[in-house]
Design goal:
The protein is of the alpha/beta class. Helix content is 48%, strand content 14%. It contains ten helices and five strands. It has helices at 2-15, 20-27, 31-39, 46-56, 60-65, 83-96, 108-116, 134-144, 160-164, 178-185; strands at 75-79, 101-105, 120-126, 149-154, 170-173. Strands 2-1-3-4-5 form a five-stranded parallel sheet, with helices on both faces. It is elongated. The two termini are 30 Å apart. Residues 67-71 have low confidence and may be disordered.
Amino acid sequence: MQSDFGNKIKELRIKNGLSQQQLADKVWVNRSTITNWETGRRVPDIIMIKRLAESLGVHVNTLLEGDAANAEKLEIIVVDDERIVLSDSIAVVEEAIPNASIAGFNKASETIEYAKSRDIGIAFVDVEIGIPSGLDLCRELLKINPETNVVFLTAFENYALEAWDTGACGFLLKPLTVEAIHKQLTMLRHPVVGME
């Protein structure tokens, strides 16, 4: 199992065009730690496995069980420039949609790069994420994949009218709740795979 796990990390690292040092920098470890994981000499703990999965752009199950586990999962992204709010929002989305693959971002540029290699079903995007704004990010995500359901997140209701001009399909006030997400899921513009 360790060698299969190590091979999977190496395969995904190379597929993402990352050196061992670059991956180490993304997950905040030494390069030698990545070498030990890839050779099977060591195995990361669960927190580090989650961090690895996010850095490699895959679901945790892909690292642990192989690509088949992630094949039909709904891909969701959550974007917020405030790390604490992002973490809390991801936790609520995970509770509301437990079988989805969820990735979080606090920068528009990283979000766009990730979206180019994924079939994002739902994107929960904070309106105020800096420059570019969440409104601009929505437009970019819809250029990449017009079938993405973009749902804006904000603490300010006054963005609602401007948000509708972007092609988004929803608008939720923060802090997120499971009930609000469930209600929004009934109003998605495009069907998504993996919803049960």
